[in-house]
Design a protein that fits this description.
alpha+beta; UDP-n-acetylglucosamine1-carboxyvinyl-transferase, Chain; Dihydrodipicolinate Reductase, domain 2; 4-stranded mixed β-sheet; 9 helices; nucleotide-binding; EC 6.5.1.4; RNA3'_term_phos_cyc_type_1
Length: 358
């Protein structure tokens, strides 16, 4: 019996857990995760992390210990059928799954756990999640739908996300479905930013805020802040009123350029004018435009697991704590990762991805 690889999350958060589980499935190797979310004030598994663990375990028929709220040590052993053309690695059956996080825990972060599995799927996988769709400390649903997935589709990921109902904090209750199909990822090359091409804006309000024109005011605040930039041509402006179990709003800006896509978001908060929500997202977009990286700050660490699978290079605007812990995790599982900083940006590269060893 293969001994599990021991990984220490003492200096990391939930992204460590999600990436480690995905890599365990891709490699069909057991892992023991210690000090899970050790860098957080409330370490261990919260509802959304437990839901992600239980979902990926169901999908790959894994044996799990430590699958309970608050657990700081987890053992996870995938049980995939070996694939004849991938030495020691497995192939994953698809299917349809339904998950209820039970809180306003992030549905988008649960989906992030599953995205890399498209590379070993043998048939489509559909996962419907009830929980938070637009909540703090995670990408809003429209960032996933209109920024991340379109970018990854450029490199071969066959994925889409459908929304049935929005879920804002604290009630959650949103419902969304991720559809994955068998995918072969191409090498990622996102080093040079191409010319700025267009701006797209997605502003959402719960039905309970419609009489205050929150979605429209958010959009107006963002566009007014961006009006001075003549390089931005507004191609799409979508203002949506959505049913939700509690009040809430979100705004996502998407900037397309010659080589990629970047996104910027903000969530409505009680006491914060809707116009200010739009301005906050616009300010992040302005900082991006003033730099030279082809991806936004939040996409940077999310692309590390993609690099581990497909290989390639990405120029990122900053080496955040999430990037640091993500790079350390990849190195701990034996993936060579290089970083070269020019003073303003950093090029992260993986010369030998998992796919080259299959």
């Amino acid at each position: 019996m293969t001994s599990p690889r021991v990984l220490d999350g003492a200096s990391a958060g939930g992204q460590f857990l999600r990436t480690a589980l995905a890599l365990s499935v891709l490699e069909n190797e057991p892992v023991r995760l210690e000090n899970v979310r050790g860098d957080r004030p409330d370490p261990g598994l919260a509802h959304q992390h437990l839901a992600a663990l239980e979902t990926i375990a169901d999908v790959c028929d894994a044996d799990v210990s430590g699958d309970e709220l608050g657990a700081e040590t987890i053992e996870f052993k995938p049980a995939l059928e070996p694939a004849p053309d991938r030495t020691g690695r497995g192939r994953l059956a698809g299917g349809e799954y339904t998950v209820d996080i039970g809180t306003a825990g992030s549905a988008t972060l649960l989906f992030d756990t599953l995205l890399p599995l498209a590379t070993i799927l043998e048939s489509p996988l559909s996962v419907t999640v009830t929980g938070g769709t637009d909540v703090a400390w995670s990408p809003p649903l429209d960032y996933l739908r209109y920024v991340k997935l379109p970018l990854l589709r450029r490199f071969g990921l066959a994925a889409a996300c459908e929304i049935d109902r929005r879920g804002f904090y604290p009630a959650g209750g949103g419902r969304a479905t991720l559809q994955l199909a068998p995918s072969t990822l191409e090498r990622v090359e996102l080093v040079d930013r191409g010319p700025i091409e267009r701006l797209r804006l997605y502003s959402t309000e719960s039905a309970s805020l419609a009489d205050r024109d929150v979605a429209h005011r958010q959009a107006a605040g963002a566009l007014e802040r961006l009006a001075h930039d003549a390089t931005l041509d507004l191609e799409e402006r979508c203002e949506t009123t959505a049913e939700s179990a509690c009040p809430g709003s979100a705004l996502v800006l998407r900037i397309d350029h010659g080589t990629g896509i970047a996104g910027f978001s903000a969530l409505g908060e009680r006491g914060t004018p809707a116009e200010r929500v739009g301005e906050d997202a616009a300010d992040a977009a302005i900082r991006f435009l003033e730099g030279s990286a082809p991806v936004d700050r939040h996409m940077a660490d999310q692309l590390l697991v993609v690099l581990s699978v497909a290989g390639g290079r990405v120029r990122i605007p900053a080496v955040t704590d999430h990037v640091e812990t993500g790079c350390a995790l990849l190195e701990d599982v034996g993936i060579d990762i290089d970083r070269e900083t020019d003073g303003e940006t950093t090029v992260v590269s993986v010369p030998s991805p998992l796919t080259e060893n299959r």
